[in-house]
Amino acid sequence: MKLQQVLSYVRKAVDDYQMIEEGDKIAIGISGGKDSLTLLYALHSLRRFYPKHFDIHAVTVDLGFQNLNLDKIKDLCRELDVEYTIVQTDIAQIIFEQRKEDNPCSLCAKMRKGALNQAIKEAGCQKIAYAHHKDDVVETMLMSLIFEGRFHTFSPVTYLDRTQLTVIRPLLYMNESDVIGFVHKYGVPVVKSPCPADGYTKREYVKNLLRQLNQENPGVKERMFTAIRNSNEGISSLMKGWGIDGSFK
């Protein structure tokens, strides 16, 4: 996928949900994976011509794994002239060595977000851009149904009262396959996650399930995404943030 196509998807999401305002300083959570690096490229390119001027600041929370090498990300940010902050933590040691968590993902996410939000505030950012794409929307909904017994997924724009930060998701209209195509075409320097739980999570299980469903019933993922967009049943956990009338515009 070409950068111009990525920008088309991103600008539509940004415009549909008014994600960016004049003078915004937006942090981008960089894990080193394909999604966050695609978002970095997209917002870097978008700010060159978007009518509302904004700045971006890349932030990585280093969980403390010894074999994580972020040199390629540092080089990329220098090349793009994007300020880059690495937050050093001992989260990996706490979760895997001290607590020996059987289900580490939930606690890790909470600790990582706490460190990330603090760094964002210190950098003077009002917003944080997450690299969730269309597949993530559907997978989150399925995870909620299967493991929690509720109909829920995240919103395009979410205001966090406790931190006074706004979360935006500019890759919302992109498929994961689009991201993979972009990364391959442009040789994006993806850094593999050193986490021992990577690939063995509930999300990975649901990802594989959705892939199987889509193979057996072509187009089912798109229909699920459309159902989420058009849902008007008033389920507050799903509806909040998806537009004034509780749905996609």
Structural summary, described in words:
The chain has 249 residues and is an alpha/beta fold. It has one domain (3-239): 3-Layer(aba) Sandwich (Rossmann fold), CATH 3.40.50. It has 10 helices and 6 strands, in the order αβαβαβααβαββαααα. Helix 1 packs across helix 2 and helix 6 crosses helix 8. It is globular and about 45 Å long.
Examine the coordinates and then state which fold CATH places here, giving the name of the CATH topology: Rossmann fold
Number of domains: 1
Taking Cα atoms only, what radius of gyration do you get, to the nearest Å?
18 Å
- What proportion of the residues is helical, as a percent range? 40-55%
By CATH, the architecture is named 3-Layer(aba) Sandwich
Largest sheet: 6 strands, mixed
Q: What's the total count of β strands?
A: 6
Summarize the structure.
This protein is of the alpha/beta class and 249 residues long. The chain is built from 10 helices and 6 strands, in the order αβαβαβααβαββαααα.
Write the layout of secondary structure elements.
Elements: H1 3-16, E1 24-29, H2 34-46, E2 54-62, H3 71-80, E3 83-88, H4 91-98, H5 104-122, E4 127-129, H6 134-148, E5 157-160, E6 165-168, H7 176-186, H8 202-216, H9 220-230, H10 236-239
Parallel strand pairs: 1-2, 1-4, 2-3, 4-6
Antiparallel strand pairs: 5-6
Helix pairs in contact: 1-2, 2-7, 4-5, 6-8, 6-9
Features:
249 residues; alpha/beta; 6-stranded mixed β-sheet; disordered C terminus
